[in-house]
Amino acid sequence: MDNLSSDNQERSFLSETLCAMTQFVVTHSKFSLAFALIISIGCVLLTVFRLEFKTDRADLIDPTAAFHKKWINYTESFGSSSDLVCVVESDTPEAIKYVLRVLGKRIEQHPELFENPLYQIDPGDLPSKGLQYLTPQQLQTGLDRLDEYGPIYRGGRWDLTQVDLLYDRLKYQIQSRSTSYRGAEREEHLEPLFNHAAILSNSMSRYLANQSDFQSPWPSIVPVNERMRERSREVIYLLNQSGTMGFLKVFPVHQENGFDGATSAIEKMRSIIGEVAAENPEAKISLTGIPVLENDEMRKSQSDMINASIISCLGVGLLLFIGFRGFRHPILALIMLSAGMAWAFGYTTLTIGHLNILSVSFAVILIGLGIDFGIHYLARYIELRHHGENLEAALLKTSSTVGTGIVTAALTTALAFYCAGLTPFLGIAELGFIAGGGILLCAVATFIVLPALLSRADRNIEVKQMPTPFQGKWLQKIIIRFPRSVALCSLGVVAFCAVQMLQKTDDGWKSRVVYDYNLLNLQASGLESVEVQKRIFNDAQNSLLFAVSVADSVDEAHALRRKFEALPTVHHVEELASRVPAHSPRETNLLVQSFRAQLEQLPDTVPYVNRLNPLIIGRKLEQFYVLLSRYNHPKAQATARVLDQFLNRFESMTLSQQSRFLDEFQYRTTASLLGQFKALRGASDPAPVRFSDLPRSLTSRFVSAEGKWLIQVYPRDHIWEIGPLEEFVKEVRSVDPDVTGTPLQNYEASQQIKVSYKTASVYALAIICIVLLFDYLSRRHAAMSMIPALVLATCTWFILFNRGTPISIEAAIGMFLVMCIGVAFVLDRQSLYDVFLTMLPPVVGGIVMFGILAMMSIDLNPANLIVLPLILGIGVDDGVHVVHDYRMKKGAYKTSPSTINAIVLTSLTSMIGFGSMMIATHRGLYSVGLVLVIGVACCLFVSLVTLPALLTWISNREQATDSVSVNSGDDRQNKHGKKRRNRNEMEAAA
């Protein structure tokens, strides 16, 4: 039978306090409920009108972190928005360009939702100042070359452009330089002549083969002249190299309040895309970008959480109705939980003042953990009523017995979450602070609201009308009959799972449970924004993620670009400084003006040139061919072969065909030189390049209001994976230690999340051990264990710090705990054993959980890593109630039916609450639900099988030892008979 009389209960200050509080609440139940209701209403109103929401991922990071300060500095200059990216795919570039233009025009009609759309780059006035982009040396070289054409554009001798005269001039120059120079010097001076001969001859040969294929026979006067002529007026579109994919980038306008963020802009963009796609079925239009990825994740997770919450509430309610076999008491527990959650929201509003995308999940945590206190309270209360206690006595005894376990469990779980506040990741710190306070408030509601509700609801209820909850008698019998076998078998299961956690490799042993940093793996499968991002990287060698570096000047931007482009992990660099002249106007202004002055008097039309005689041309080309054939220079030999082929085709033509060909070619030759002169004159505007000359869609992205220049550094590899990301971050920081950007934010945040959860778990484990020592040791022994250990640990830390030997906080805490445990071992060994036994469910259950995760190939990730503090809190909660139940009893231990009922119900409610997230299509939420279900089930197994079996085995051995000391003369047969009778009596009582 259960030993529940007051004689077997250790009265303490805590139990007396809880008993007095319950007495007051029961006596003044109306006042207590009215007070709780008023506080709840006030908290709800405060929450509605004062609680804010922060949806930006940057809000999760401590603003004092060094890496985040760099991001803040960047966003202050250039804004925090990332681009929405419309991707247009088609077989022809022209179709893509047309769709981009249509999309761009419709987006420009909604300035309230979109800013600075970029889909084409209009050169504007830049071509008129093109010569300013050359170096002073290049400009001087161009002027020297231009001077060679002086007789043509200054003297009006356009007849010098005749093809026969060009060949005569080249022939004379080659012969003259051949006799004037020797050796390498001769080769150096002949090189430009051979090049000009090659250009002229190839131009004639190509034009003869195809009348629509004319190539200028004139060498470039300045290095960029050819590109200037071809692209000076061209509108540039954002296309991949193969021309199968085009891009439109635009900044979304974010909503200031609520969780909408860029939702309005994204929805409107998708509406526009749908309209344009219907009008242009030949093109495939998709939407992606960092804001879209984050928005899709937020909206998908919100939708999944709503569905999960509905299922969770229904499932938890149904389970409580089944577990307590009635409706009245589960409803009272849910009312208590509602009051506790209302207080928690008010506490959050008063302390933090806002929720972020991590801390908003605290409500789900409270549903899973806050209801546990009410379940334990109800289970013991109903059990006492069945043992004949009246209403008030049952409530008082419940508070003084199981109440101490509830307080201890609430403190350990809350402190486990509060320890997250010591971590550097702000999102986790705020979640820990809010969840810890919420758990304490739910525990307070358990002792204020629930007894008052029970005193009113059960006032006229007879004992026979009380429900009979699940008691787990079959489990009791098995453990009582075979405690050692059950303990050994369960420990064997634990050992098997522990072995599965590790695997041997060539580098030694390593964990089979890995941490997956890839945030794309958290998204819902088949999400358009994710799939498009993968196609962009594969087909366009581009990424939505890029590092950003900020330069104070154009020269610094040029220097950084060169350094970044030299890195192996960098694919390309985008910046605007290259569109600004590298040299100041003072260095180039006079040279540019010289071009304009010399080319001022150009004719408006192509000057007339005498007609060419085919016979004379044929003869002169033959002579030039013979001349080139004498030189072993590769360029001369190649040109000679071209001339030979040209002459063969030319001689096969009729005289009229030859004349017509020469007339047309001569006209185009003269026109191309005039065009080159006009292009130089058109690019010789000496007015300095201004920002107004550059496209607004570019300047808004790459130049800040303070005149800072942005450099975007794109990775070569897929940096959603941690390996390439680490290498990329390392290399770009080697060039600019202040570099920032989304990939670096992701990298640092993921590292902080991982470290924060681990640190929080270590701190929580330490603080839980301290609370349990306070709970199980007497006040005198607790003081003797804690105070000297604290003094010694502090002095040791101070001495090492002064000697320049820094010691980590974790090491200091470990040293303090070791000292505490050592002193406690001497003072009260049994209580110390109870502490270790209480820690079995979270520690051993965690080992079993990780073993199962390894066998199922389930990885940890930034979403499901929250399992560490949650499992620690849930496991300790279970362990505290089992060990408290053990300490309240004398003789052979048998787990109380109320304890079994409460632990089963609390575990199942947690599993249903968290497991409801497994319906989510968002893979991050799904993994959270899956891992927590496995973890809670493992803690349940250890709490109701391993731990009770060990306690029963220990109590049997203690009882057998006491029996031997009293009856030392009895023989072995009598001992076995007595033990058998004791076990039969316990089974009968169960």
TrEMBL record:
<feature type="transmembrane region" description="Helical">
    <location>
        <begin position="31"/>
        <end position="49"/>
    </location>
</feature>
<dbReference type="GO" id="GO:0005886">
    <property type="term" value="C:plasma membrane"/>
</dbReference>
<dbReference type="InterPro" id="IPR050545">
    <property type="entry name" value="Mycobact_MmpL"/>
</dbReference>
<feature type="transmembrane region" description="Helical">
    <location>
        <begin position="356"/>
        <end position="379"/>
    </location>
</feature>
<keyword id="KW-1003">Cell membrane</keyword>
<feature type="transmembrane region" description="Helical">
    <location>
        <begin position="807"/>
        <end position="827"/>
    </location>
</feature>
<keyword id="KW-1133">Transmembrane helix</keyword>
<feature type="transmembrane region" description="Helical">
    <location>
        <begin position="400"/>
        <end position="425"/>
    </location>
</feature>
<feature type="transmembrane region" description="Helical">
    <location>
        <begin position="305"/>
        <end position="324"/>
    </location>
</feature>
<dbReference type="InterPro" id="IPR004869">
    <property type="entry name" value="MMPL_dom"/>
</dbReference>
<protein>
    <submittedName>
        <fullName>Membrane protein YdfJ</fullName>
    </submittedName>
</protein>
<keyword id="KW-0812">Transmembrane</keyword>
<dbReference type="Pfam" id="PF03176">
    <property type="entry name" value="MMPL"/>
</dbReference>
<feature type="transmembrane region" description="Helical">
    <location>
        <begin position="839"/>
        <end position="858"/>
    </location>
</feature>
<feature type="transmembrane region" description="Helical">
    <location>
        <begin position="331"/>
        <end position="350"/>
    </location>
</feature>
<feature type="domain" description="Membrane transport protein MMPL">
    <location>
        <begin position="888"/>
        <end position="958"/>
    </location>
</feature>
<feature type="transmembrane region" description="Helical">
    <location>
        <begin position="431"/>
        <end position="454"/>
    </location>
</feature>
<feature type="transmembrane region" description="Helical">
    <location>
        <begin position="925"/>
        <end position="951"/>
    </location>
</feature>
<feature type="transmembrane region" description="Helical">
    <location>
        <begin position="760"/>
        <end position="777"/>
    </location>
</feature>
<feature type="transmembrane region" description="Helical">
    <location>
        <begin position="784"/>
        <end position="801"/>
    </location>
</feature>
<feature type="region of interest" description="Disordered">
    <location>
        <begin position="964"/>
        <end position="990"/>
    </location>
</feature>
<feature type="transmembrane region" description="Helical">
    <location>
        <begin position="898"/>
        <end position="919"/>
    </location>
</feature>
<feature type="domain" description="Membrane transport protein MMPL">
    <location>
        <begin position="260"/>
        <end position="460"/>
    </location>
</feature>
<keyword id="KW-0472">Membrane</keyword>
